[in-house]
Structures are given as C-alpha cells and as structure tokens.
Specification:
- The chain is of the alpha+beta class.
- The protein is 16% helix and 41% strand.
- It is built from three helices and ten strands.
- Strands 1, 2, 3, 4, 5, 6, 7, 8, 9 and 10 form a ten-stranded mixed β-sheet that branches.
- The protein is globular and about 45 Å long.
Length: 173
C-alpha cells in the first residue's frame, strides 16, 4: 500500500493547482493531496486533503480513482501515491489566486500544464496527467529518477481495482 494521495480538481479546460510552499515539490504547481493517516482509506484521504487545502468539500461520488504513480529514486524503490480526479460544475465559482497554508491555489489551463518545456510543474505530471484526464483506463505510472532527473517512465494498465483488492487494505499502520 502506498502512503500518499494526489488529486486534481477540474473545471472546464483548467485544473485547480497548488504552488507549494514546502517540500516536496516546493515552488512547483501540483495537485492537492498528502499523507494517508493511520486507518484512513486513500479515498477518505483525498476528500480530507481537498477540504483542508482548498476548502472544497468533495463527495465520494465526485472523486474518481485514476491509478497510481510509483517511483524509484537513485535505484531505490521510494513509494508511490494513489491519484484521483474530480470535476466541479462549469458554473461553480471558486475564485483564485488564493493563499492557503500549503501555498497558493490558482486555476491553470490544461494546455499550459501539459506544454512542452513547462518548468512550472514537476517533470512527472506531464507524463501521467494525460492518461488521468483523457483515458478511462487506470494505470500504474512507473517513474525512475536518478539524481533528480526522470530517466525512465512507463504506464502499465491496472488489472482490477487496487483500492478494493484484498492486498490493499487501507490502514497505514
């Protein structure tokens, strides 16, 4: 079981992104999420983190599990995270920029986020985000980094639903 969640909140052709004030991803635009608390499910974690970081109270029906991102750093397996996507109604108002405890929230156009050479987002996001946004299938996105640079990436379709399998009990104890 992984210890983290990451979620993206979509509205029309943009995503609500967080420019983080703290590591990891300090100074980069990212989704919202965080560490799964003991006894908490990944879904409960992303619902809690979205509320804490944005003030948006999502429901379980609005949040869709989109797969996992795992990484190996300097030849050591370093973990991973469960990814989620939610969509706000097209006319729901959420004003940005907005300063929050974790950093600054702002709407960013999907085209901007995925643009080649965009140094404002981490180099992993443009690899896995298109599948999250534009594909129904769920994937494990495997990322290999060496000396803080992405050296390999692959997307493997997930069989079944790892959130609900017997091997993925939700406790992080």
């Amino acid at each position: 079981m992984f210890r983290y969640t990451l979620g993206f909140i979509k509205q029309n052709d943009r995503l609500l992104m967080l420019n983080r004030d703290h590591a990891p991803a300090k100074g980069l635009w990212n989704g919202v999420g965080g560490k799964i608390e003991p006894g908490e499910t990944p879904l409960a974690c992303i619902l809690r983190e979205a509320w804490e970081e944005t003030g948006i109270r999502l429901t379980a029906a609005e949040v869709h599990f989109k797969g996992i991102v795992s990484w190996q750093v300097d030849e050591t397996d370093s973990g991973g995270m469960y990814t989620f996507l939610a969509e706000l109604p097209p006319d729901e108002a959420y004003r940005t920029p907005r300063k929050v405890d974790e950093g600054v929230l702002d709407w960013k156009a999907i085209d901007w986020i995925l643009a080649d050479g965009n140094l404002g987002v981490g180099e992993l996001i443009p690899r896995y985000l298109p599948a999250m946004l534009f594909r129904e299938e769920r994937y494990e996105h495997r990322c290999t980094l060496y000396r803080n640079k992405l050296t390999d990436y692959s997307a493997i379709p997930l069989a079944g639903d790892p959130l609900y399998s017997e091997s993925a009990r939700y406790s992080c104890d």
